[in-house]
Amino acid sequence: MEERKGHIGVTTDNIFPIIKKFLYSDHEIFLRELVSNAVDATQKLKTLSSLGEFKGELGDTAVRVSLDKEKGTITISDRGIGMTEDEINKYINQIALSSANEFLDKYKNDANAIIGHFGLGFYSAFMVSKQVEIVTLSHKEGSEAVKWSCDGTPEFTLSKADKTERGTDIILYIDDENKNFLEQGEIDKLLKKYCRFLPVSIVFGKKTEWKDGKSVETEEDNVINDTTPLWTRKPADLKDEDYKKFYQDLYPFTDEPLFWIHLNVDYPFKLTGVLYFPKLKSNVDPHKNKIQLYSNQVFITDSVEGIVPEFLTLMHGVIDSPDIPLNVSRSYLQSDHNVKKISSHITKKVADRLEDIFKNDRPQFEEKWDDLKIFIEYGMLTDEKFYDRAQKFCLLKNTDGNIFTFEEYKTLISGNQTDKEGTLIYLYTNNREEQYSYINAAKDHGYDVLLLDGQLDVHLAGMLESKFEKSRFVRVDSDIVNNLIKKEDIADADLTDKQKEELNETFKSQLPKIEKVEFSFDYKPLNENIQPIQITQNEYTRRMKEMAAMQTGMSFYGEMPDNFTMVINTNHPLVKKIITDVDGKDVEAVSKYASENPIIKQLVDLALLSNNMLKGESLSNFIKRSTELITGK
């Protein structure tokens, strides 16, 4: 053939500057696109061979990536179907753009919406190259080798080439701004990121070994990918060890997963993959972006929020689907009807798996509940359909470590924890140690107390109140034990307003100053054996503040001071004496009396200490005073 020159079939002379400008932020994907094209060419040849349409020997079908630092080139070579001159004209020289204005108007605000949609996968090469060459020989009998060359303008050169083996070499002359791609470590990193599981062997240089105190190349090809990753194989052919090993390959130095799900769907969409339940403990955010999305074994992204529901982003693993609609760069997801179907299916499969484990091996499920809990609660809070399924296997744990389903626990407490209005009261603690005395008081009344100490438990309690019929969740320190589950009204103490004012001043004068904390006082004629002073906090305001700490848009509650009530037991002997001592005194005399009576300060501090509110100097003074009261010195 004679050498000829021509113009690439685009409708604007500015196509290459546009590619460079719009795709620059995603420039590393050039390698993914070109290697993927090479794999496609190889797979097509294998298909033709299997159909008998290609009679030759397949031979070595590996795709090879090589660097030449001196020449400043990266070469991607395959032994696939190759191209004829006509095919170069069709697939390389014609970029299907209807008009320059339409192109610019549509994509000027979408930096990643170019490659692929208009057959521009190959043209991503120009993001990093000052010149690109294609040297190719078609698999068709009688074909001639062709060389195509372009320097980043619409002008190209097409000429005869010396190539004797079928396939295609793409040679990139890297420009000055992208010399980092001529470093072996950089290319190795990108190949492992994007091409780690491609279905055709990808070779990058030779393997090395340590010899005579240095690293030397061997004769063995350095194959960087696993062509048959675990999710492409049949579950029946795999053992637990295979799943665990794959997990460790994906996430080195992490704990073993709790469970896993092998996805294998052919209809109405194609979807494969393996999803793992990691040990989440109590933190949500740091574990996101651990699901890797692939399309035909090509890595696309690890930001899969558009593909799976929010709570499933806590899972780890791999999803592979050619049917997930990606935008043209294959780097960003587009939400559409098909995506929603896939998302719903994954949610169903996750719920099925959890329910299956619960039904068939409840002891194992309970053993791993503390790790599974945050995942399941997150799902119930954010996905109504998942809640409907998960309420069957979501568990509640009490302070004794016993575990119940929702129905089991309702049956347990219905007899004793229903108040006078017929409302079922779920008592709970969020800190078994700090609220120990309140828990004991509740147990002494025959009540059971749940342990809700997880990151999402306060949100779950709010949701369950709306889901459960005539039920309420109440923290054990939100009121005195007699008021937690009101069987009957408790009368106020028989005190005059003047007496209450005197007592308010008595106890208030001995309170330490605690930043953003306010106290009010209430007087109840409780059993004389009950503590003289108890501190409680209203359930609603406390819960709002806890939720505000985790949720934007609730900062109003977060800025409010903490309001506590000091409940004074007027039947306690020490309180009775104080009532008698201050009766009839004016404010000044009451303050003087309180400051000179160490018992009053001690009672106040004991109440604060039981709520973990006595700290610093106040705690030190309490310890010193306790010693003095014991020794009489």
Set down the secondary structure blueprint.
Elements: E1 4-7, H1 15-23, H2 29-50, E2 63-68, E3 73-78, H3 85-91, H4 100-107, E4 129-137, E5 146-150, E6 155-160, E7 167-174, H5 184-194, E8 202-211, E9 214-223, H6 240-250, E10 259-265, E11 271-277, E12 291-295, E13 298-301, E14 316-320, H7 337-360, H8 362-367, H9 369-382, H10 384-390, E15 395-397, E16 403-405, H11 406-413, E17 424-429, H12 436-444, E18 449-451, H13 457-467, E19 471-475, H14 481-484, H15 497-508, E20 517-524, E21 533-536, H16 539-548, H17 555-559, E22 562-569, H18 573-582, H19 587-596, H20 598-610, H21 616-631
Helix pairs in contact: 7-10, 9-10, 15-19, 20-21
Question: What features would you describe in this structure?
Answer:
With 633 residues, the chain is an alpha+beta fold. The chain has 21 helices and 22 strands. It has 4 domains: 212 residues, Heat Shock Protein 90, CATH 3.30.565.10; 135 residues, 2-Layer Sandwich (Ribosomal Protein S5, domain 2), CATH 3.30.230.80; 91 residues, 3-Layer(aba) Sandwich (Rossmann fold); 126 residues, Four Helix Bundle (Hemerythrin (Met), subunit A), CATH 1.20.120.790. Helices cover 36% and strands 21% of the residues. The strands form 5 sheets. It has a 9-stranded mixed β-sheet with strand order 1-6-5-4-7-3-2-8-9, covered by helices on one side. Strand 5 and strand 6 form a beta hairpin. Helix 7 packs parallel to helix 10, helix 9 packs across helix 10 and helix 20 crosses helix 21. The chain is elongated. It starts with a strand and ends with a helix.
